[in-house]
Design a protein that fits this description.
The chain is of the alpha/beta class and about 625 residues long. The longest helix is centred in the middle third of the chain and has 23 residues. It is built from 22 helices and 27 strands. It has a 9-stranded mixed beta sheet with strand order 2-1-11-10-12-13-14-15-16, sandwiched between helices. Strands 4-3-5-6-7 form a 5-stranded parallel beta sheet, sandwiched between helices. It is globular and about 70 Å long. Strand 5, helix 5 and strand 6 form a beta-alpha-beta unit.
Length: about 625
Amino acid sequence: MAVMPPATTSPMPGTARTTVPAVFVDRVARSADRTALLVKRDGAYRPITWREYGEAVRRVALGLGALGVGRGQTVAILSGNRPEWAFADLGTIAAGAITVPVYATNPPNQVEHILSDAEAVAIVVENRHQLEKVLEVRSRCPKLARIVVIDPTALTDAQRGDPMVLDFARLLALGAEVEAKDPERYARGYADLRPDDVASIIYTSGTTGPPKGAMLTHTNLLASASACRGALHIGEDDVALSFLPLAHIYERINQFGAIVIGFTTAYAENLDTVGENMVEVRPTIMFGVPRFFEKFQARALARVEAGPALRKKIFYWALGVGREVSRHLQAGKPIPAGLRLRHRLAFALALHKVQERVGGRLRFMVSGGAPLARSVAEFFHAAGILILEGYGLTETASGTHVNHVDRYKFGTVGLPLPGVETRIAEDGEILLRGDNIFKGYFKNPEATAAAIKDGWFHTGDIGEIDADGFLRITDRKKDLIVTAGGKKAAPQNIEGLLKGHPLISQVMVYGDRRPFLVALVTLDREELKKFAEMSGIEGSHEEICRHEAVYQAVRRIFDERSATLARFEQIKAFAILPEDFTQMTGELTPTMKIKRKVVAEKYHDVIERLYETAASGRRTE
């Protein structure tokens, strides 16, 4: 395939030609008594030092060796975010084995697929719920020999007697026993690892088909982890709040970034407590996905709308001042003295409340995993919070591009990170090359050959590079809608416009090879309840979703927010679904991206009725 010339090429990070254990051991030695991790226990956040972190990893590595786990074998982790996740991950890699993360939300059949395909010989599980998944499928995972359980209360008496099962404390004790007999065993174990050895196999989320195992080497992980340091100006004194699943490469690379840079990672208790944990931890940096920022904005605006008229008027005046300041900053222009004074007043009267809800000392947040609507980035910036959008995939060990703290453009995913070379193919597809590009798909040479051609990784994303080198993602190549009239529409961009309203939870646009676009819509339960009370609507949630006043309210939102779109990009018909898309029902990936094929198949009849009734102007129930 013919391609355009490279956009930019940057020098390689210095840590890319070593191994993960070597970098980790060096970090432990240099930062031994500094706080590495923060975990909430007994109602308060407690520190874990780098020395303690290093000891736990060392004992996991030696314990796995004592259980017979050898070089090149695979060890899965099925758990939510917690210190033991990191201990198991780095201990596995230090033992010369390969970590295979599994999402805690995966049902048993998906757990079975990954364990079988990856040929896992051991798995670390968090609690009884995760243990039961593995016990259900272990007879169909022939290589699986050991199950390590983090929560000791998860085991029944019978399970404690199962030779295949042991608790995490026993694994650490085994490691301590080995170390007491042979203090140099740990160092010898990782000394002969090579930078190009596979350190982890991460299974893709499967938005376009069955999950495939992307093989990532030590070089891949360290190149990606090191590259963000300069662009984001992250240092040892920073504190990050971890709440995205560590099974996803985006959050996982932040773990490796902490090792390279030395900053502190605090674990959120769960997704529902992120807001509370932000206030407790007071992070300086955060990594999130667009859905998190969209919901934060929607809730902030809902609180304003529910308040007194005077408070509402002050907030929107303050937000307007913030937007004016934002425009100057985006353009790199100095802020006039009068505007600076108004901005200080705006912050004192209203905008400080947004800052307080994120802990009060946040320097910036990074958004990845899916496109971020420009309107969302501009709202946060007006409130004094900078969101830096980035871009990357599992196959690129997360980030390849990111906006810089001192150089950013909203609506783009930023500039190439060090060591990343970017090209745009003739059909608009983004091609990438660099030390962060994965080794290939595990046991799948055909898929590997389709993804890497002539040394370039074909991302499947469509994009363009502007005159200043900033990359803009226009859509997924496979998601791009081509209407019956030959017009091309990017559904994610349209969905991003529509989801900014507090009432709207999720939108999926549909219309490939169809005469026009339609959409499936879900509503925010709290906002819908408020709307119903204000409108005098009674009934169950499902009945309210079907009410004509709700339909017309959504219609108005669509009409207002679609005004800037071309006619062929506008939604001609939509259906309001009574239940939201979720991970548990298989409609969302762990980073909240819609599995379009799954949703389209599940609601096939609803979509067909939309097309049947749209011409007559009737709405679909």
